[in-house]
């Protein structure tokens, strides 16, 4: 039975390459090979990145006789990458697998199910540990007993990562079973991980320099608060007592985790939602027109989907964060802006560049480009309502503009203040960005009407892989790039105010033409979508 369970889990793991769950069908041979090659390229890129980190640390620390500190740091990095990379996979594999109820209905002990899935979790964690630990071993170039210990420590570290991800996965399972609004929690958690990733990415160079400049004090600190990492470093350099102690402690934690999970897994898998139940309270509903009702419906659809929020609303978060950053850092950026303006020949073209930069970010929010496809097979509900198709499309356009206009205006104003633009220039910059939002909302909607996808089985398909989204995203970027080149060329004879007015007029003219198309051809297409 255990062999069959392990075979099933391994086949599911391999099906990632051979089966497209979003489209609900098997991948072609070419698609499978292409997907595998993409995975290998990603693996190679990450491997090279950690090789560079290991090379930056290995030489300087070895010269100071701190080889153990090098392996302690790389071991800590291995644990961090392993946990961040596989905690959600562990959560879904152990606690939220789709076949939980089917397996529990069979005469199979829960401990056997756990053992088979723990093997898969261990293999996935091993992948992330290989990414970091193997480059560390290769770069250091150890031989003899230290090399043997380092190879063994790869699996010991994987066991530790498994312990940590099992614990964090259990916390996620416990929290999500008590939440009413899982969308907000998913978005918040995803943003925290994205923020942590970019923070470490941009700070990695300064962190490495700080370690190398203060290696002695850092080593003393690890001997205190990081005692297990100290023992790991000693074990990796060939210390037999440290190797035995660290391995036995890790093995004990791993066995204890398996024992606890085997006793509690059944309760976790069968746990029901314990969040507060909705209680009906009678209240008077305010009368609203069709336009307001359709707009509320589109807004509710946007905020109810974590996938929609993260992929079509990420630009809003970037603009909000960038506005705060620009306001804070504006004084420090003035010397740089003066140099840029001097290089451009003292021509006031920076307001146009700043507005186009905001437009570039706005292009990332393809809300309207997926809105028609997201109706899916339920599109007949809107088509059968006593409202004109034009009103439905207008609501989809408006929600795109409303969601973006405030963060876009804040960022535009912040950039205008930072570059020293006058009040008229700032107003024209905001007007230009608003005109671009009008244009991009209509352009995305038009692309979605021309190329809709109502047959999806996973909403991520129209949101992340749909052709209308791709056209809206890259089309917006190309237009911004073309206007940037045109502005730089014309800036020799035209000032920033005239250039901003020209851009506003261009976006407004194209938008009016698309509005006319939407009222006639677009509404007709929507009425006949099936």
Protein model, in words:
Helix 2 crosses helix 5, helix 3 crosses helix 9 (227-236) and helix 7 (182-213) packs across helix 12. The longest helix has 35 residues, at 29-63. The model has no long low-confidence stretch (mean pLDDT 81). The protein has a two-stranded antiparallel sheet with strand order 1-2. The protein folds into two domains: 50-269, no CATH class; 290-527, no CATH class. It has helices at residues 2-18, 29-63, 67-95, 100-104, 110-140, 144-176, 182-213, 215-224, 227-236, 240-269, 290-303, 306-312, 314-343, 350-362, 367-371, 379-384, 389-418, 423-450, 460-465, 467-490, 496-527; strands at 19-20, 25-26. The relative contact order is 0.08. It is 81% helix and 1% strand. The protein has 530 residues and is mostly helical.
Briefly characterize the structure.
With 530 residues, the chain is mostly helical. The chain contains 21 helices and 2 strands.
List the helices and strands and how they pair.
Elements: H1 2-18, E1 19-20, E2 25-26, H2 29-63, H3 67-95, H4 100-104, H5 110-140, H6 144-176, H7 182-213, H8 215-224, H9 227-236, H10 240-269, H11 290-303, H12 306-312, H13 314-343, H14 350-362, H15 367-371, H16 379-384, H17 389-418, H18 423-450, H19 460-465, H20 467-490, H21 496-527
Antiparallel strand pairs: 1-2
Helix pairs in contact: 1-5, 2-3, 2-5, 3-5, 3-6, 3-9, 5-6, 5-10, 6-10, 7-12, 8-9, 9-10, 11-17, 13-14, 13-17, 14-17, 14-18, 14-20, 17-18, 18-20, 18-21
């Amino acid at each position: 039975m255990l062999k069959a369970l392990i075979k099933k889990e391994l086949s599911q793991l391999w099906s990632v390459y051979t089966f497209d769950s979003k489209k609900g069908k098997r991948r072609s041979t070419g698609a499978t090979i292409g997907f595998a090659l993409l995975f290998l390229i990603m693996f190679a890129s990450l491997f090279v990145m950690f090789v560079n980190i290991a090379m930056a640390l290995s030489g300087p620390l070895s010269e100071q006789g701190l080889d153990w500190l090098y392996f302690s740091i790389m071991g800590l990095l291995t644990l961090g990458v392993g946990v961040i990379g596989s905690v959600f996979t562990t959560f879904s594999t152990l606690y939220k697998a789709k076949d939980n109820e089917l397996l529990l209905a069979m005469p199979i002990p829960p401990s056997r199910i756990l053992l088979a899935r723990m093997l898969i979790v261990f293999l996935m964690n091993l992948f992330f540990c290989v990414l970091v630990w193997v480059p560390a071993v290769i770069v250091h170039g150890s031989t003899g007993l230290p090399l043997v210990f380092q190879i063994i420590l790869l699996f010991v570290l994987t066991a530790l990562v498994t312990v940590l991800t099992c614990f964090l996965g259990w916390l996620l399972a416990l929290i999500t079973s008590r939440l009413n609004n899982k969308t907000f929690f998913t978005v918040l958690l995803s943003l925290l991980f994205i923020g942590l990733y970019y923070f470490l990415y941009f700070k990695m160079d300064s962190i490495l320099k700080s370690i190398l400049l203060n290696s002695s004090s850092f080593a003393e600190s690890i001997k205190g608060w990081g005692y297990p990492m100290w023992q790991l470093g000693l074990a990796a350099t060939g210390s037999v007592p440290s190797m035995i102690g660290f391995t036995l402690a890790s093995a004990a934690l791993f066995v204890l985790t398996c024992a606890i999970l085997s006793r509690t897994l059944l309760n976790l898998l069968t746990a029901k939602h314990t969040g507060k139940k909705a209680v009906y309270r009678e209240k008077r509903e305010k009368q609203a027109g069709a336009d307001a009702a359709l707009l509320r419906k589109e807004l509710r659809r946007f905020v109810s989907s974590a996938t929609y929020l993260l992929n079509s609303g990420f630009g809003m978060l970037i603009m909000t964060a960038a506005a705060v950053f620009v306001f804070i850092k504006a004084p420090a950026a003035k010397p740089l802006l003066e140099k840029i303006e001097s290089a451009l020949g003292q021509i006031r073209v920076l307001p146009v560049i700043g507005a186009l930069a905001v437009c570039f970010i706005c292009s990332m929010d393809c809300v309207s480009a997926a809105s028609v496809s997201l109706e899916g097979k339920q599109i007949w509900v809107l088509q059968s309502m006593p409202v004109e198709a034009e009103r439905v499309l207008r609501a989809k356009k408006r929600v795109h503009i409303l969601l973006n206009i405030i963060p876009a205006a804040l960022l535009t104003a912040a950039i205008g203040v930072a570059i020293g633009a006058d009040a008229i220039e700032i107003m024209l910059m905001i007007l230009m960005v608003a005109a671009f939002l009008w244009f991009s909302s209509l352009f995305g909607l038009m692309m979605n009407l021309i190329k809709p996808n109502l047959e999806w089985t996973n909403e991520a398909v129209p949101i992340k892989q749909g052709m209308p989204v791709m056209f809206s995203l890259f089309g917006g970027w190309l237009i911004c790039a073309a206007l940037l080149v045109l502005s730089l060329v014309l800036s020799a004879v035209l000032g920033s105010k005239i250039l901003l007015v020209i851009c506003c007029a261009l976006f407004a003219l194209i938008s009016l033409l698309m509005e006319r198309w939407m009222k006639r051809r677009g509404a007709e297409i929507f009425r006949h979508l099936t």
